[in-house]
């Protein structure tokens, strides 16, 4: 955007606010008139030489009574001889007041356009003299010098000369002075606006301290200052590398406020703010920040695309999401009830919520604009530099933006529909936006687009549904609209791309997610009984199965419906995707299949589709990644890959645990192979949450092994205790905020180890010494007794002595022994084993 007045200078942007006013006011003025103005400004005492020069110039330009005063050619030619004199008066050896009046005269003369500026700039060193005046103590001189630079830098050639002469640094310095006047601020900002046109120099604005000032000037009372600051930011936003500093300076909130201002004087500022926000929205994170402020990015599809819009025929009114407004019990004979919907809608029991009201307002606004042909202008978006013709956007308030995107979904153009579906997915960043799209009626058309003949439209619709499905209300809406069948049919379609298939599977995974986790089930572990550890593990598995059955009964109707929709072809395709997909996709497929396995029909289909062999392959990859070194020594990419593999393995083990309930599946797998893989992963560096499932699956696999004919499965009770139960109890002591949980963990841990050397070593390896010592200070009598017993067993190994002492056990043990309480003998006995 270019604020200056050079008509002959080709520029990417032209600001009609400043430049057009100056052109209307100054272009066409004769040199005589401009000298008259400059003479008036040079009337202060002590400016004799300047007045004489101005008088001479005026006399030479006065051609007599019959001369045409408006003849610019003759007057400019006669007065240009004096330009050199005024340039020489800018020299440092002249009186400051003569320099002031000279620069004021040249500033006025430069308003004549490119030819006038060429006459000024023809003198070598002129630009350096102008820049030197920016340091003057006179505010009038600084304003005139900045104004002259503003006009000169509107020409690309002279802009480059000014930058090479240090003009940017001097302008920045002047703008940061505390004595700078509002008029000088405007000239400085407009000069920086010119400099910001060239992308190679924008970095200088960012590296200086002036960027914060420029952003703050968006709140200035002077509208011209706001326009200049907005123009600079609009140009800076054209470079993606500048987005970070701009956002850090707090520009988004200020631009949103300017865009929402309705005054007529803010037309240019709104245009600049919109342009800046569109550029910033190209980054996903900054786009989210803009949406959080109540704005939505909407693609420009061309006014011709809206010609296909056809309003619905007259019918009983309904909400945008398709739900019908309740009919009045006393309809009017002449249709007044339909016209005045408030007669029924405003009743307390039928009054719509705020979201529905907003959706109705947005739909009405956008449909009206579409009917009158004013929804999108042909020249809209042409000022978006750096954007492709098919990649233009506008920014709208969320009420209008959501409604327009839904309206575009109903058009005929493939390109328009694809853009709208993609924009809906991009805007679905929180529950508010997802609910807004639901109330606006976006779910049903997006589901129908999954059957569109164009593959790019199907991919865009799948993307939007995947983003929307983060909201539970959207998942319920998809089910209500019959979307489950459409999604399953899309999975079975061999023509769909892997990208579309991945998004559909993600959506199905969220729809099928019933909110139960393994951690919730494991909270019901009964570890306080008097049974041995093996029986405790059996009860764990029983609780898990009971929880699964209970959750299964709550979704019987849902499973009966899914049996009608999901057949062997769908399960076979899902199994194939699980075999060939990425680890993240494998985890989602396993989640979907885990829901389906509640049905024996689906479990039989999975067995026939060789799902067990695919699970085995995933576990083998998990063994490889689980035996790698410390994750802290891996690079970022390796950490991400390893985490995705761990999630896929955990999901596969959960699916395997469910499938083990069916005899047909158990007979089809090699139980020994699965047991070996699970035991190796149980000993690896998988997180504790994953090992919970490994242990549960091992227990069930061991109990079901007899059905497969493999009777050589060895006992795994000790390994589960060492690698899953003990680390869990230690973690519970370290991380739980509940004293009761810590107390129960200590007591259970004491019951488990019972002098078994392997278990004692596992406690030390899991880092249990420090929380045990801490419990000496916090625990009650039972917890204190358990802690002393465990620590005594640990002290039998001299390698644990340094850790026990470092944890601060000695002072606590001495205090317990001296108190001569119920456990003073145990404390004294432990002290005697330590080297103190």
TrEMBL record:
<feature type="compositionally biased region" description="Low complexity">
    <location>
        <begin position="1"/>
        <end position="20"/>
    </location>
</feature>
<feature type="repeat" description="ARM">
    <location>
        <begin position="441"/>
        <end position="483"/>
    </location>
</feature>
<dbReference type="InterPro" id="IPR011989">
    <property type="entry name" value="ARM-like"/>
</dbReference>
<feature type="region of interest" description="Disordered">
    <location>
        <begin position="1"/>
        <end position="22"/>
    </location>
</feature>
<dbReference type="InterPro" id="IPR000225">
    <property type="entry name" value="Armadillo"/>
</dbReference>
<feature type="repeat" description="ARM">
    <location>
        <begin position="767"/>
        <end position="809"/>
    </location>
</feature>
<dbReference type="InterPro" id="IPR016024">
    <property type="entry name" value="ARM-type_fold"/>
</dbReference>
<protein>
    <recommendedName>
        <fullName>U-box domain-containing protein</fullName>
    </recommendedName>
</protein>
<dbReference type="Pfam" id="PF00514">
    <property type="entry name" value="Arm"/>
</dbReference>
<feature type="repeat" description="ARM">
    <location>
        <begin position="125"/>
        <end position="167"/>
    </location>
</feature>
């Amino acid at each position: 955007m270019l604020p200056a007045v050079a008509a002959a200078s080709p520029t990417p942007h032209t600001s009609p606010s400043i430049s057009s006013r100056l052109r209307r006011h100054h272009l066409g003025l004769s040199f005589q008139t401009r000298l008259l103005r400059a003479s008036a400004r040079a009337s202060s005492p002590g400016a004799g030489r300047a007045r004489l020069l101005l008088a001479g110039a005026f006399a030479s330009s006065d051609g007599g009574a019959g001369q045409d005063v408006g003849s610019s050619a003759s007057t400019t030619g006669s007065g240009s001889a004096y330009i050199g004199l005024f340039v020489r008066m800018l020299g440092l050896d002249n009186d400051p007041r003569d320099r002031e009046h000279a620069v004021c005269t040249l500033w006025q003369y430069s308003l004549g356009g490119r030819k006038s500026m060429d006459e000024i700039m023809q003198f070598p060193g002129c630009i350096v003299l102008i820049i030197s005046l920016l340091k003057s103590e006179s505010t009038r001189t600084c304003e005139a010098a900045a104004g002259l630079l503003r006009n000169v830098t509107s020409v690309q050639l002279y802009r480059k000369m000014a930058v090479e002469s240090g003009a940017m640094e001097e302008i920045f310095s002047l703008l940061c002075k505390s004595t700078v006047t509002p008029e000088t601020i405007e000239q400085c900002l407009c000069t920086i606006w010119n400099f910001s046109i060239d992308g190679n120099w924008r970095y200088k604005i960012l590296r200086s301290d002036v960027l914060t000032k420029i952003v703050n000037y968006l709140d200035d009372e002077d509208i011209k200052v706001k326009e200049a600051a907005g123009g600079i930011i609009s140009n800076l936003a054209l470079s993606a590398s500048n987005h970070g500093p701009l956002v850090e300076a707090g520009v988004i909130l200020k631009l949103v406020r300017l865009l929402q201002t309705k005054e007529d004087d803010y037309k240019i500022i709104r245009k600049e703010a919109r342009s800046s926000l569109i550029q910033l929205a190209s980054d996903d994170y900054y786009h989210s920040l803009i949406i959080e402020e109540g704005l939505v990015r909407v693609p420009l599809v061309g006014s011709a695309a809206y010609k296909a819009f056809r309003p619905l025929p007259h019918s009983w009114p309904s909400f945008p999401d398709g739900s019908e407004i309740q009919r009045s019990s006393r309809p009017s004979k002449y249709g007044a009830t339909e016209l005045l919907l408030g007669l029924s809608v405003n009743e307390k029991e039928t009054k719509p919520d705020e979201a529905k009201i907003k959706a109705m307002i947005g739909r009405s606004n956008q449909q009206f604009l579409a009917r009158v042909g004013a929804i999108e202008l042909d020249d809209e978006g042409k000022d978006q530099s750096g954007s492709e013709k098919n990649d233009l956007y506008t920014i709208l308030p969320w009420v209008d933006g959501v409604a327009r995107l839904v309206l575009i979904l109903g058009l005929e153009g493939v390109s328009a529909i694809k853009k709208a579906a993609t924009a809906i997915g991009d805007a679905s960043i929180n529950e508010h936006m997802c609910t807004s799209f639901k109330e606006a009626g976006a779910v049903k058309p997006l589901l129908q687009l999954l059957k569109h003949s164009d593959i790019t439209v199907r991919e865009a619709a799948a993307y939007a549904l995947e983003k929307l499905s983060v909201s539970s209300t959207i998942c319920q809406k998809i089910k209500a609209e019959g979307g489950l069948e459409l999604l399953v049919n899309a999975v079975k379609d061999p023509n769909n791309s892997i990208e579309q298939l991945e998004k559909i599977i993600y959506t199905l995974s969220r729809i099928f997610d019933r909110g139960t986790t393994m951690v919730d089930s494991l909270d019901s572990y009964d570890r306080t009984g008097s049974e041995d550890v093996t029986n405790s593990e059996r009860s764990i598995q029983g609780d898990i199965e009971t929880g699964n059955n209970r959750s299964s009964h709550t979704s019987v109707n849902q499973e009966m419906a899914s049996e009608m929709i999901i057949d062997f072809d769908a399960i076979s395709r899902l199994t194939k995707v699980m075999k060939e997909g990425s680890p993240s996709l494998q985890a989602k497929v396993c989640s979907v299949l885990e829901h389906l396995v509640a049905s024996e029909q689906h479990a039989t289909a999975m067995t026939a589709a060789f799902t067990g062999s695919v699970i085995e392959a995933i576990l083998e990859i998990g063994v490889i990644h689980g035996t790698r070194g410390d994750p802290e020594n891996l690079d970022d990419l390796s950490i991400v890959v390893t985490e995705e593999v761990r999630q896929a393995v955990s999901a596969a083990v959960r699916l395997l645990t469910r499938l083990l309930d069916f005899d047909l599946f158990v007979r089809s797998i090699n139980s020994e192979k699965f047991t070996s893989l699970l035991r190796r992963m149980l000993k690896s560096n998988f997180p504790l949450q994953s090992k919970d499932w490994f242990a549960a699956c091992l227990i069930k696999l061991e109990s079901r092994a007899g059905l497969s004919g493999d009777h050589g499965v060895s006992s795994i009770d000790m390994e589960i205790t060492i690698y899953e139960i003990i680390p869990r109890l230690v973690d519970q002591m370290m991380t739980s905020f509940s004293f009761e949980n810590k107390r129960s963990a200590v007591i259970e841990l004491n019951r488990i180890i019972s002098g078994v050397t392997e278990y004692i070593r596992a406690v030390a390896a899991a880092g249990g010494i420090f929380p045990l010592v801490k419990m000496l200070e916090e625990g009650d009598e039972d917890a204190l007794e358990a802690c002393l017993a465990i620590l005594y067993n640990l002290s039998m190994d001299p390698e644990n002595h340094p850790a026990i002492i470092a944890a601060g056990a000695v002072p606590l043990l001495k205090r317990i022994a001296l108190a001569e309480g119920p456990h003073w003998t145990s404390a004294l006995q432990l002290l005697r084993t330590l080297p103190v």
